Each structure stands twice: as structure tokens, then as C-alpha cells.
Amino acid sequence: MQFQTFSPRQRLAMSWWSNPKTSSFDAIICDGAVRSGKTLSMSIGFVGWAMSCFQGGSFAMCGKTITSLKRNVMTPLIRLLGNLGFTCLQSVSKNYVDITLSHITNRFYLFGGKDESSASLIQGMTLCGVFLDEVALMPQSFVEQAVARCSVSGSRLWFNCNPGSPTHWFYREWIKKAEEKHVLYVHFTMADNPSLSPSVRKRYERLYSGAFYDRFVRGKWTAADGIVYPMFSKKHHVVEQVPECDRFYISCDYGTVNPSSFGLWGHCDGVWYRLKEYYYDARTEGERRTDEEHYAALESLAAGHNVECVIVDPSAASFIACIRRHGILRVIPADNDVAGGIQQVCSMLKQGKLKFHASCKDILREFGQYCWNDSNKGDAPKKEYDHTMDDMRYFVRTIACRNPDNSFFAVSAARA
């Protein structure tokens, strides 16, 4: 890993604790555009501060999941620290890293703050400091519990995130109250990352539109409104003929009273095509279908294709059990992260990596009906006209954009 230079904001994120103008702050928040260098510069600064101010201390480094924390933060950080002469010894089973430089050693525990239950994982610890990567993706209960653990004299808090809705709890409780809480607030743009070339910056600008463009490219806390997928275009995304595909999946949003929507997806040259679909609305038809009747439709949709897997709404336990009982099609519960899935669908539509056969009338109809909720409760699409939208999101999140779990990094050795 090589760096030619750091921008002024990146240097501030690394050294604010030692700068006479900013060292009196109790915490730092860095937010703004994606790929602006927030995470790397802050993680370097966090370890540098810890090793300069403490010996034998305990610290927490937190991400939405431990897997994402290791991938996005710890792997590049450990590699860089090894090059700088630090020794990093890790415990895979207990999720901590002991970092040593000369005679100083501190322990850094790794935590995932993915849901409300995560708060119990960090409860009861005594910490000298905490680093929270992508804090806006974590529940408030976990963050507040982590903050409460920092009771050692001289402890400090380090937060970073990409912007979300202006109604988000972290924006309201921390960013808007930064002065009151004695927090240094630093806003990043892509221009603050000198290693990001103009061509790469342009690529990121092409990936997003609407509220996601404002958030991830412009770095603004913006409310989402209107159509969820404004970048969808029948001209660019709908095809009359589909090329020969080499892989096949089916995604299912299952309903009893609400509609059931199944989509058959095929892959060709980096593009995923929705080839066919099954849509059944019990209210419109005046009759509910059983699990077995829906399963018969599923087999009919899969006929003639080597379907690798069926991805099903994780709450549809009875239908998942029905598929497994027949033993013909492999089935897995879908990743039901709504916000993350919508972002990934937006990106794939912008890149032209999702296309739809003209016969798939129901998903084409719902693209024009699927809207953000106009209430003041943050990002949430309306729970209507969302059944094909949900099955598409399950497919994109679980298969098309899946990130296989990475095992932990290799231990870096001290220099001789």
C-alpha cells in the first residue's frame, strides 16, 4: 500500500488529538462522500492516538458486522502498520488484535453492531476509546452502549459515516449537536482523497442518482422522495430478446393475502436478465393459494433451466420448508437489508447490469409505482406495489452483489 500524500482533511482526521487547535475535543465525526479517505485516515489516527497515549489499554473498533470491519478497515490497516514497524497479533476466535510498537502494547477488540441485540456484546467493558466505522448503519442502542464504555480518563470517540436521511438519529443526536457535545466535525468530499483519480471519481458519479447521488457523491444528508428507482428506463432496461444465459436463479417474495412474486434470472456477460416471472394476487383473484400450489408454479418457472438456487423472503418459513421438503430445488433465505439492497439495485440499474424481458409485465408496472414514504421517519419505501421490487432486491442483495465472507487477515511481523 503506497500513499503519495494526504489531504488537509485526512491529516486533520489523523492528528486532531495532537493539534493544539483541536486537541481539546472529546470526539471526532467525519462524514461525507464515499471513497473520500475517511476510514483509512481515521483508523490510522485512532491507532496512532492509542499507542501515543496509553499502555496496556483496551479499545473497541466497530463496524456494522465483524466481516465488513475486517474487510474494510482492519485488512488495509494491519498491512500498513506492519510496514511501519508495528507488530500485530490477532485472536481469530476472540476477535481482538494486540498491537505493539517498541515497549507499548494495547488491545483492540472487534465488534459488529448490526442490530439491537449487539449492544449486549460490548456491555460491561471498560474502554480507553472506540472507533465506529459507518456508524449511521448501526442501531442507536449499540452506539450509545459503546460510548458509555469509554470511562477511562483521556478516552475519546471516533465516528465516521456516509450521509443518510436528515431524520437519522445520528445526524440529529450527534452531528446537529456536535458543538454541544464538544465534538470536532469534519466533512469530506471526494476531492479530499488525493489517491482517487478523476476517471474513478467520474465512475462513482455515474453509479448514483437522486438522493443516493446527493449522499454518496455530494456528501449531503438528503431525504429520499419520489420514485425509488428513477434511473429505470424501458428504453435502456427492457429487452425483447435475451441472449443465451449461463447461470440461473429464482427470487421469491411470498404472500398469502398479499401478492406472491417470483422472478427467474439468467446471467450473460456480466448482465442479469429477468427472463420470466410468476405473480399471484389473492385479493384480485378472490382465492388464496396454498404453499403446494405456489410451489407448483415455482417448478413451472424453473422448468428447462438449471436453477442453482431459490432465494426466498426469510419470513416465509412455511414456503421455505415446502421447497426443502420436495428436495428438488436448493433454497436459501434472502438478505433482507432494505436500504443496502435498494442502493445495490440502483447501482446495477445505473450500470446497465439489470435488464428485463418485455413479458415481465408486473415488475415493469411496479417500477412506476414504487415510491418512498413521504413521512418524516427516514428512508423507507411505501409498503405497496413492492412485491416484484422485493423479490428483485432479494436477488440483487443475496446473489448478484453478494460479498463472500472473508477470513481474517494474516498476522504482520515486526521488523528486524
Mean pLDDT across all amino acids:
91
Q: What is the share of helical residues?
A: 25-40%
Distance between the terminal alpha carbons, to the nearest Å?
20 Å
Structural Rg = 24 Å
Largest sheet: 8 strands, mixed
Primary descriptors:
disordered C terminus, elongated, 416 residues, eight-stranded mixed sheet, alpha/beta, seven-stranded mixed sheet
Written description of the protein model:
42% of the residues are buried. This protein has an 8-stranded mixed sheet, sandwiched between helices. The protein has 416 residues and is an alpha/beta fold. The longest helix has 18 residues, at 66-83. 34% of the residues lie in helices and 21% in strands. The chain is elongated. α1 runs parallel beside α2 (38-53) and α13 crosses α15 (387-400). The chain has 15 helices and 15 strands.
Summarize the structure.
With 416 residues, the chain is α/β, with parallel strands linked by helices.
Question: How is the topology of this model organized?
Answer:
Blueprint: H1 8-15, E1 27-32, H2 38-53, E2 58-63, H3 66-83, E3 87-91, E4 96-101, E5 104-112, H4 119-122, E6 129-132, H5 140-148, E7 156-161, H6 169-175, E8 183-188, H7 198-207, H8 210-216, H9 234-237, E9 238-239, E10 247-253, E11 260-268, E12 271-280, H10 282-285, H11 291-302, E13 307-312, H12 317-326, E14 331-333, H13 338-350, E15 354-357, H14 361-367, H15 387-400
Parallel strand pairs: 1-7, 1-8, 2-5, 2-6, 6-7, 9-15, 10-13, 12-15, 13-14
Antiparallel strand pairs: 3-4, 4-5, 10-11, 11-12
Helix pairs in contact: 1-2, 2-3, 11-12, 13-15
